[in-house]
Design a protein that fits this description.
heterodimer; A: mainly alpha; globular; B: alpha/beta; Rossmann fold; Alpha-Beta Plaits; seven-stranded mixed sheet; four-stranded antiparallel sheet; 14 strands; 32% helix; 28% strand
Chain lengths: 262, 315
């Protein structure tokens, strides 16, 4: 028996991995990504990355802080845009056939969230490769002062922020969210922007509405500082909590929705 | 055993549009049930509720006894009214994906997909992009995907809508074969001949209500009218006048009298008293089209259940 145990372990581990690979969530995620790529929308992502590169990095490389500030904002916008496209494609009438095969809607929405999140990795890597690698033969271009150790915290923060944004975009998509929820979210966003930009007294009171953005801001700053301290670790945990929480929220909302899709 | 049980089902959409109104429908195991009704009658809403895609405003629905219908999805094959696929994938790739979602992997998936493509006569186009398929091929692909898990219940929403006659015939052959296998089938259709050919029982819907439900054979042989053929060349009109039967006769033409079955004994007595011989007396058969038109033209009333059916359509 004792000799059989070690040989069983790899088999059971590989079986566990196969079972994991075959979960409906991963199956939906893989298909959603394949569908996004085959539809040609992936070219849109590549073009946006190229435009960002051309606009902000072609003539001057900048340092690590510049890279994360500039590329970060572009990648955040791209995360929102490409997730809108991906979710709208996945939530048309074609959803009925996959849903008719699943024993709950959870796997479907989780698959979309996973696909949208995974897509952030290659888009970021492409941006990084272009900015860091393309002009290494010209010393003043590329990312100045970039080392693996001072780049990694920024990578983690930027990717987490992009994934939070893509997850939030899925959650706020119709039919997962209602128009009312979308309006409430936009109202909150307006209050946040007002409280951030106005010197009025009321804006100072409204600063409390910016609290949920603390993890986002902290993760964004990792790129500039190149350091993740204790506070940063807590913010990372909160950011992961956002992703999990938003996924559960999407699942909860979608379960209740009438799916009348065209 | 009831496979589908809808009890007092109502559905009101947000703008106070009532799509279903207190509808009760029960479909038994092995029954092929046809849902007829004009556009907007509520057929598709009913199907979506039965599939668990939308939820009733009131009432209850169970499929295979499951109130949470998604749990029964593995036992249901579904064809949407407008099958929309991923056009850039091949028919085989898309079926493979849907098979994987149903837990079919590796050789089991390949074998099942190949066999279904053969069954619906799509094997030669299996490796072409779905975007190049004709409407008939798309419909056959939709039927193929519905059969992936060898379901006990098939729900087909307008399976032949918009197809050319040959494609319609092909789809009907497939459904007919499935019916012979004893599958429970729910078909929504506008095509009365199709329902008459493929279904054991039928429900006629209008404005979210079930107007009439019953076995097809009972509906088309509803004995509410009988036809009496008078012997010889005696004029039916003259007999009606002579015996003063105008109020009891629906139609008098040549030597034939059409009367309500309830007036049968009265008319026969009058003929016997007047010594007028008859050749035959038969119930009048309707086509399903006549049954349908009669049902939808009548003022609205609670669902009528024709002999041989329990309330709501159960045999």
């Amino acid at each position: 028996m004792s000799s059989a145990t070690p040989s069983l372990r790899p088999a059971s581990l590989s079986q566990a991995l196969i079972n994991f690979w075959r979960t409906p969530t991963l199956t939906v995620a893989r298909f959603t990504l394949r569908s996004y790529i085959r539809s040609g929308w992936i070219l849109g992502d590549i073009v946006v990355i190229w435009l960002l590169y051309a606009a902000f990095f072609l003539e001057f490389g900048g340092n690590v802080k510049y890279f994360y500030d500039t590329a970060g904002q572009g990648l955040y916008a791209l995360a929102i845009l490409s997730t809108i496209v991906m979710t709208q494609r996945a939530m048309q009438a074609r959803v009925y056939l996959p849903l008719a095969r699943l024993s709950s809607r959870s796997a479907y929405v989780q698959g979309i969230i996973l696909a949208a999140g995974l897509l952030r990795i290659p888009t970021f890597l492409l941006m990084l490769l272009l900015a860091a690698g393309y002009h290494t033969h010209i010393p003043i271009l590329g990312i100045q002062g970039a080392t693996v150790s001072n780049m990694l915290p920024g990578v983690l923060g930027l990717l987490l922020n992009c994934i939070v944004l893509s997850t939030l975009t899925v959650v706020l998509s119709i039919p997962i969210a209602t128009r009312r929820i979308q309006i409430v979210f936009l109202a909150w966003l307006a209050v946040v922007l007002y409280s951030n930009g106005s010197p009025a007294l009321i804006a100072q009171y409204l600063a409390v509405t910016r609290l949920p953005l603390a993890p986002f801001a902290a993760c964004h700053s990792f790129g500039a500082t190149g350091v993740i301290d204790g506070y940063g670790l807590v913010m990372i945990i909160l950011e992961v909590g956002y992703i999990v929480g938003l996924t559960l929220l999407a699942d909860f909302w979608l379960k209740k929705r009438d799916l009348i899709l065209l | 055993m009831a496979v589908i049980e809808c009890v007092e089902l109502s559905k009101t959409y947000s703008r106070r549009v009532t799509a279903l109104n207190n509808l009760t429908l029960i479909v038994d195991e092995g029954t092929s049930f046809g849902l007829l009704g004009e556009n907007g009658a509520g057929k598709s809403t009913l199907v979506r509720i039965i599939m668990g895609f939308i939820f009733p405003s009131s009432g209850s629905v169970r499929v295979f006894g499951e109130k949470e219908i998604a749990r029964a999805h593995a036992r249901i094959g579904y064809v949407h009214e407008r099958p929309i696929f991923e056009n850039r994938f091949t028919g085989r790739a898309y079926l493979t994906y849907l098979g994987q979602l149903s837990g079919l992997w590796d050789q089991a998936n390949k074998t099942r997909v190949d066999s279904l493509l053969e069954q619906v006569n799509l094997h030669q186009a299996a490796d072409r992009a779905i975007g190049t398929y004709s409407k008939g091929m798309l419909q056959r692909l939709a039927i193929a995907q519905s059969l992936l898990t060898e379901p006990e219940l098939l729900i087909l929403d307008e399976p032949t809508s918009g197809l050319d006659p040959h494609s319609q015939w092909e789809i009907r052959q497939i459904i007919s074969a499935l019916r012979k296998q004893g599958k429970t089938i729910l078909i929504c259709s506008h095509y009365l001949t199709e329902i008459e050919e493929l279904c054991d029982a039928v429900g006629i819907m209008r404005r979210g209500s079930l107007l009439l439900t019953g076995k097809v054979t009972d509906l088309i042989h509803t004995q509410n009218t009988v036809e009496i053929v008078l012997a010889g060349q005696r004029s039916a009109t003259d007999v009606v006048e002579q015996l003063n039967l105008a109020e009891l006769v629906i139609k008098a033409r040549a030597n034939q009298l059409n009367i309500a079955s309830s007036a049968q004994s009265q008319v026969l007595s009058a003929l016997v008293r007047a010594n007028i011989p008859i050749t035959s007396l038969n119930p009048v058969s309707h086509t399903l089209e006549e049954v349908y038109i009669n049902a939808v033209q009548k003022p609205e009333q609670p669902a009528k259940v024709v002999a041989g059916m329990r309330e709501g359509g159960k045999r």
